[in-house]
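Subject: design request, 329 residues
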């Protein structure tokens, strides 16, 4: 029978080098397990519905929806990563040092890909609202696929390079057995902070401020039946109400994303090195994860096509022949 001291260790057989478990009251632990399990399950299910909807129905194969598909894929992976957060509730990592590094690399790649997708969404709405006559020729499905692919590949390559020291010698920064930690040194952390946060967020804010200004002026023009002109004097097509609604919906997605994202990156500014297993980061990490659950809920609130596609999916009507050609929008 284990002694009390052995029960508090991650690896009782390694008494002199094992980390100690995070001890909580049983009721608190159960509540945390239930909440995180529900978040993980709902995040995966709801984002899978988005992925199936956009992938299956041909009418939804638009450049904007391809960007939403990329975001849903990253959000679905986030839901799966929450499972590891559940397993880490006792403060112990049981899956090996290399797996720990790969876990953090995967987490970083997903985060960067999500931010990159948000930048692409901002650019998409900027072109659609500010240059509507050129949107169809510039924002093609092929270009969108290339941009999304480059976004994911750059995110993977960048963070493999940033965390290469941790990959070469997994566990070099662990102080005891059962600890999962990777360290970004000052230069690498600064580069990552600029590429993953400062730069993208600046682009997003600038573009959406411009979109907001133009959308407001276009909405006023539609209400007063005034024809809008470009600076060059040529007639500019009035922005469709659907484009304005899409800009509003995606604006909500971006604002919620930034609210959930900013605390994490702001916390990284507090030290010279970015230590990722600090208990003080638990709340902001969970806040970022929770954002992945909110996105499909926002789609369900603002997009009728998403609600309709969910109905067809859960009733198994998508299994019928020719269901991919159904009128969703």
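Subject: RE: design request

Done. Sequence follows.
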């Amino acid at each position: 029978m284990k002694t009390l001291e052995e029960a508090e260790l991650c690896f009782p057989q390694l008494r002199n080098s094992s980390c100690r478990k995070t001890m909580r009251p049983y009721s608190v632990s159960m509540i945390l397990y239930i909440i995180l399990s529900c978040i993980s399950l709902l995040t995966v299910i709801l984002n899978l519905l988005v992925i199936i909807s956009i992938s299956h129905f041909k009418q939804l194969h638009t450049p904007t929806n391809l960007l939403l598909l990329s975001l849903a894929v990253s959000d679905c992976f986030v839901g799966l990563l929450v499972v590891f957060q559940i397993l880490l509730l006792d403060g112990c990592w049981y899956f090996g040092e290399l797996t720990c590094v790969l876990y953090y690399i995967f987490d970083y790649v997903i985060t960067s890909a999500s931010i990159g997708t948000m930048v692409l969404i901002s650019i998409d709405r900027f072109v659609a609202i500010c240059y509507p006559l050129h949107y169809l020729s510039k924002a093609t499905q092929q270009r969108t696929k290339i941009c999304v692919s480059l976004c994911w590949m750059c995110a993977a390559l960048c963070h493999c390079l940033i965390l290469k020291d941790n990959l070469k010698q997994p566990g070099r920064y662990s102080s005891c057995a059962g600890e999962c930690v990777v360290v970004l040194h000052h230069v690498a952390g600064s580069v990552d902070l600029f590429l993953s946060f400062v730069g993208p967020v600046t682009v997003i804010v600038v573009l959406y401020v411009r979109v907001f200004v133009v959308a407001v002026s276009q909405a006023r023009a539609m209400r007063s039946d005034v024809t809008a002109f470009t600076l060059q004097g040529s007639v500019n097509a009035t922005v469709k109400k659907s484009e304005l609604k899409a800009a509003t919906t995606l604006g909500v997605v971006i604002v919620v994303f930034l609210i959930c994202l900013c605390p994490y990156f702001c916390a990284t500014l507090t030290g010279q090195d970015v230590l990722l297993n600090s208990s003080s980061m638990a709340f902001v990490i969970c806040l970022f994860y929770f954002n992945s659950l909110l996105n499909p809920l926002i789609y369900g609130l603002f997009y009728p096509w998403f609600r309709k596609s969910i109905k067809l999916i859960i009733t198994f009507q998508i299994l019928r022949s020719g269901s991919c050609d159904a009128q969703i929008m």
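Residues 138 and 236 are 16 Å apart (CA to CA).
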